Amino acid sequence: MDSQQSRVLVQLRDMILKGEFGPGERLAEIPLSERLGASRTPVRLALASLEHEGLIEPSPSGGYQMRAFTSREIADAIRVRGVIEGFAARLLAEDGASRQLLRQLHDCLDEGDRAVNKPTMELDDYAAYVEMNDRFHRLILEGCGNAAVMRTLEMLASQPFAAPSAMLPMQSSMEEGQQWMRQAHRTHHALVQAIERGQGSRAQALGEEHVEIARMNLDYALERPDLAAQLMPGMRLVAGSRGRS
């Protein structure tokens, strides 16, 4: 993914989470390109990524539109991803990671450090972190060597907010989002350390704990109805979205 596409993806995802598109609103390439000051190609590719993440859906009239989802749907997908990613990390730790894979994971850690350990993160830093984060998780999943795990995660990634980076910018300000990212990246460091040391149980626990940041982001919005209305417009389409009845 090139840098322009990464920036456009971060911008569109953030706009969706902050409620800048109404429920069922059509998202067409040309108006979005003009609004973002970007060419149509990165917008088209970003929209395809957002559809894969379950945030938008194809529109009968062409292009895409906002889709409906519930908080239960989101929370369930996040929890399942944590279990599966934790298991993948455990397999990798117990079977042993190659030197090449460890170098790639450390490269991700270094890139993440450069993005989050700044006085203030800019949009390009967010885009760089999202790109790194997706690559980090993909390396662990591919590295575990379990095809069933990869197929399951691929299917799960199509659920709303279940993809690794889907909820990263979900805060009321970039400064607050940066604090959450720093916390998430500290877990990345601990996870790589556990894999290097062959600590399977610890790697699994860290993998499951890591996705709790996404779940906490969800709770953060739901406990503040005014913020939730801004950040999660799709949930306004479903009554009683948080309950289990």
Describe this structure in words.
The protein is mainly alpha-helical and 245 residues long. The protein folds into two domains: 3-66, Winged helix-like DNA-binding domain superfamily/Winged helix DNA-binding domain (Arc Repressor Mutant, subunit A); 71-223, Four Helix Bundle (Hemerythrin (Met), subunit A). The chain has helices at residues 3-17, 29-36, 40-52, 71-95, 99-116, 123-143, 147-156, 174-196, 200-210, 212-222, 225-231, and strands at 26-27, 56-58, 64-66. A three-stranded antiparallel β-sheet has the order 1-3-2. Strand 2 (56-58) and strand 3 (64-66) form a beta hairpin. Helix 4 packs antiparallel against helix 7 (147-156), helix 4 (71-95) packs parallel to helix 8 (174-196) and helix 5 (99-116) runs antiparallel to helix 6 (123-143). The longest helix has 25 residues, at 71-95. Mean pLDDT is 81; it is low at 227-245.
Task: Quickly describe the structure.
The protein is mostly helical and 245 residues long.
Write the SSE topology:
Layout: H1 3-17, E1 26-27, H2 29-36, H3 40-52, E2 56-58, E3 64-66, H4 71-95, H5 99-116, H6 123-143, H7 147-156, H8 174-196, H9 200-210, H10 212-222, H11 225-231
Antiparallel strand pairs: 1-3, 2-3
Features:
three-stranded antiparallel beta sheet; single chain; TF_FadR/GntR_C; mainly alpha; Arc Repressor Mutant, subunit A; 3 strands; globular; disordered C terminus; 2 domains; 245 residues; GntR_C; Four Helix Bundle (Hemerythrin (Met), subunit A); 11 helices; 3% strand
First-residue to last-residue Cα separation: 41 Å
CATH class of the largest domain: Mainly Alpha
Specify the helix fraction band. 55-70%
CATH superfamily of the largest domain: GntR ligand-binding domain-like
By CATH, the architecture of the largest domain is named Up-down Bundle
| CATH topology-level fold name of the largest domain | Four Helix Bundle (Hemerythrin (Met), subunit A)
Q: Figure out the total of helices.
A: 11
Biggest sheet: strand arrangement: 1-3-2
Number of individual domains: 2
Number of E strands: 3
Low-pLDDT parts are: 227-245
What portion of residues belong to β-strands?
under 5%
Main β sheet profile: 3 strands, antiparallel
SSE string: HEHHEEHHHHHHHH
Mean pLDDT level: 81
Mass-distribution shape:
globular
Give the structural class: mainly alpha
